[in-house]
Amino acid sequence: MMAHSTHGGSHEERFLKAFEEYSDALFRHASIRLSDRERAIELTHDAFTKAWSYVQGGNEIDSYRPFLYKILNNLIIDEYRKRREDSLDAILERDGVDEGTFDELHHGSLEEVVDAMDARRALDKVGELPDVYREVLTLRFVDGLGPKDIAQLIEESENVVSVRLHRGLRTLRELLERNDGPKT
Description:
Distance between the termini: 69 Å
Strand content: under 5%
Number of helices: 8
Number of strands: 0
Structural class: mainly alpha
């Protein structure tokens, strides 16, 4: 009997292809969730290391994307447990997205630049949300997963995910408005 995934290449080829396809997205996810670039790099690396060990242990991974997100998500949750000793101030002071990722500021129309700046401000504020909202907002708007995929990943119902998305967006809007004052 043959393992069904060997038609897609060797275990090593499939793993390397997954690394190529998903490492950037996983890193982006981790850096927004953690607001700590170095730690995000380490946890992304750890997620791939764990996946490789799993494969080396003779196990099959049908679909790398959800598998890697699941591992990374668990690592991030562990990280939050460790961080609870940190003061809230220390967590909120850490900055979010790396300036270098916003190349769109160098090309494009004024509207695109303004949109990018607004998105940047919103991303910065996501770091101040409780992780229960930060998690679903990052999965939805950074990773582009739908509510059904998010529900499977975090092992909650689709309804719970929708409620968290709704409340998270409302809280984010309040944070942004509090900073701006009322728009005239």
